[in-house]
Amino acid sequence: MEKSTATFMTVLAALLLVAVAVMGVFLNVSVNSEEQYRLSANNDYEQAYYQLTDSVGNMRVNLDKARVTRNAAMMCELMMDASVSCESAAQALYKFSADGYSASALTKFANQVGDYCAYLHSKAARGEEISSSDYAGLQKLSETAALVQEKLAPVRDEMGKGGYEFSSSLGSLNEEFSSIMNALQDGSMEYPSLIYDGPFSDALDERQAKSLTGEKITPQEGATAVKEKLGSLGIDGIEYVGEGKSHFETYLYTIDDEHGSGDVQVAARGGEIVQFTFNCESGEKRAFDPQEQALTFLTALGYEDMTPVWSAQSEGIIYMNLCYTADGVIFYPDMVKVKINAVDGHIIGCETLSYLFNHTSRQTEEPLLTAEEVAARKYGEMQTESVRLAVIPTPGGGERLTYEVYGRVGEDKFFVYVDTTHGDEVRVLMVVDGEQGELLI
Fold it and tell me: 100 pLDDT exceeds 70?
């Protein structure tokens, strides 16, 4: 009996040692996966933070320049540039709000400045005088932008030294970023209450996402929606993390499969995918059509009648923008962004915020000008290559039907947007080479 007991204890001890070894392997794999995810999330935050600080800096510079001009054309140009910076800042802030932290105070400020710039742009374009109170508003907004820039600077400086971490887990932000939010919320940074014709920033902050029309779902139903919509990518492991709220309620999930891991944000109303990122090593190199990959993926998500409108490639990733199209009209406000691994064609990310906020049934007016008439016009030295109808967003959240005229001046590429009624040029974009491929400015 004693010999049998001793043998049993020896076997048990051996089994325990094996179990500990196996557990150690699994724990090591888990730790490596978590480390990869943490680094990827931190990189996303860094990119958004650089975009935010650059945008606020550009916003401030244009506001300051506008204080010394008395020329209507220059005021229009500066206000347009400032509006673009405001839009860029708001886009960067979406990255931070994705983890459940509400960046509404700073987003409101960016929208407020953008709408004020739209107001001054409109006055200058109509030939109206820019009043002393208008210039006082510019000064106050510039001062506030300077304070925001000052509070953003220390984190950017630390990022430049390397090793700065924004968060250690999903759902947390660093104290420095939070202090900016709190400063704006508690009024220590004051900016004027702007009252003028047109849509207000408060309305933009509180506006409903037009495309979210379903009933509120449960977190369990959200997990089912993730599995159904992303199942074609091979996603099988789905874990609920918590709730989030930026402009609307969302549920946050982590996902994984044998190749890697990522995170997903789902709208609590209707279960639409708001955004997702997936981190994995590239698979075997294969030939594929990026447009076809993106369209197939969006069809699985439930997006029909989408048209690729822009793509760029950088560091092994293809970035593609697709927009809703109806009756030959491209609707730029209804945009979905997709990221594709350039080696194996795997979909590794998407963001649908613009589409969810803007997509709805529309009635577009009949153009008074024809595409042929627009194409026949002269646009400086540009050689026109194509013309198509496009609805573009306007400062303050509006929309405008235009003709998109694409052409070149030598090797330089341009997009000119022309009003379909009177033929005025309402916006000009130039294609430039940036760190992440071709960009529009």
Answer: no
